[in-house]
Amino acid sequence: MRKIDIFDTTLRDGEQTAGVNLNAHEKLEIARQLERLGVDVIEAGFPAASPGDLAAVKRIAEEIKNSTVTGLARSTQKDIDAAWEALKDSAEPRLHVFLATSPIHMTYKLKKTPDEVIETAVQSVKYAKQKFPVVQWSAEDACRSDLPFLAKIIEQVIEAGASVINLPDTVGYRSPAEYGQLFQYVREQVPNIHRAKLSAHCHDDLGMAVANSMAAIENGADQIECAINGLGERAGNASLEEIAVALAIRSSFYQAESRLELKEISRTSSLVSRLTGISVPPNKAVVGKNAFAHESGIHQDGVLKEKSTYEIITPELVGVSSNSLVLGKHSGRHAFRSHIQKLGFEPGEEQLNTLFKEFKDLADRKKELTEEDILALLLEHKIQPPVPMYQLGDLQVNYGTNNIPTATITLKAPDGTEIQEAGTGSGSVEAIYNTLDKMLPLPVHLKDYRIQSVGSGRDALAQVYVLLEYEDQEINGSGTAQDVLQASAKAYVHALNKTIMNVQKDELVNVSL
Ligand SMILES: CC(=O)SCCNC(=O)CCNC(=O)[C@H](O)C(C)(C)COP(=O)(O)OP(=O)(O)OC[C@H]1O[C@@H](n2cnc3c(N)ncnc32)[C@H](O)[C@@H]1OP(=O)(O)O
Ligand SMILES: CC(C)C(=O)C(=O)O
Ligand SMILES: [Mg+2]
Hints:
Bound molecules: acetyl coenzyme *A, 3-methyl-2-oxobutanoic acid, magnesium ion
CATH class of the largest domain: Alpha Beta
Cofactor: Mn(2+)
Domain Pyruvate carboxyltransferase: 4-266
Radius of gyration: 28 Å
Number of domains: 3
EC number: 2.3.3.13
Mean pLDDT: 92
CATH architecture of the largest domain: Alpha-Beta Barrel
Organism: Fictibacillus solisalsi
């Protein structure tokens, strides 16, 4: 199996996404997460761009030790000096220096002849090599360059000391087959290419950045440059998460793998989305909120019977706790039954048919069915969850920046008696959950906690979902209230009630219609 180096450019090309501007603190936070993700190289910025970017790259280079840190520079002494200033204290100082090689760029942008471009490239690599042990050289717009000229300049920059050669598809122009051929051509026509690693850097203007990167791997690329959530100039770069998972799932086809900690992917994507302000489209592969959501009845039935029928990636692989079966107008009876069973309801076959018909009618009228809608449907039909149920009574939470958060809770037991308890936690929600654990001691473990608003506006309801682990089962609970702490308590009590019901399953009484 070949090892592919993952070169992350979220903090450089990714930051070139229109509207994105990260400060040094935010960049450092992302760099730490990229290190946890296990990327081989972090391109932390463009030190000559601004004093702020130089300082950010310097901070990252000083702190990050398990990934190599690099920075970009034009082929000028000033840019290379700025990069050295930023990177000299990193574990293995590495420069990324570039110069355009296509006739369009050389003529109109650089206003240089091809010979002048070769001379500039060679001089910049030689200058960089006096400082940096590792120099990566990029032929900007390689994909629209004259091939013999490209081979000639690559040979000379390797001679000058470059040990990584990048062939960027700067404007996202090539098809996968063509991009693969470019790698083959360079490998065959550049006599000293064995002295360098070959790198791919693809843009998504025609939606082919990931496919092109994979084609480069098939044709001998050793390193792939990519960005979290596919961020980058214009339509963005190849997205790291898609390449990483494609390599993991299809490693036998590509005969290659990365060293990434894939379970960090979801967390990394969320962090980058939060700090850049660029949200991830729901249908985005691997990290979109729908990537593991099944909506249609036939798929849901398949997944309930055997997940691999419709899942080639397990959610756990990339750090997502579980898949989800979304109830909507395309859902079928199997998913509907499974959903209401998880809510603690056990309707008979006839009840199920009536409920399912009403559910379909409702789904035709509403875009998205919430858990509250389903509960309302069940209660309308007087299908009661089996007893016993504990009900949340009084809830009081004491919180102050200098105090230990304390919760005092009253629960109404199924026999009508009231129990009261107080407890503390490191935050208000934890104080509530620690108190409830004291009141209803069960060997449960909180696996997931999510909060969202129902609708928008300052008066929107808070909806909390919790997922508890009890022995080998997962039990969810939900609660809705105007106040987030009350919704949190309700969700936990809901899940604890369902856990108790599971414990006492034999004694359960189903109330019929
Ligand atoms: C494909 C890519 O993603 S390349 C990276 C793109 N990223 C960025 O540009 C972000 C950071 N850039 C910046 O902050 C600024 O552009 C700076 C500080 C680098 C330069 O700013 P300025 O000096 O004001 O120049 P400006 O950006 O307007 O123009 C670019 C100049 O660099 C030249 N240039 C472009 N690429 C290179 C290169 N690889 N090597 C040397 N010179 C280059 C251009 O020809 C132009 O030169 P000119 O002024 O003689 O016409
Ligand atoms: C600087 C280079 C590598 C680049 O971002 C590109 O060509 O797209
Ligand atoms: Mg780029």
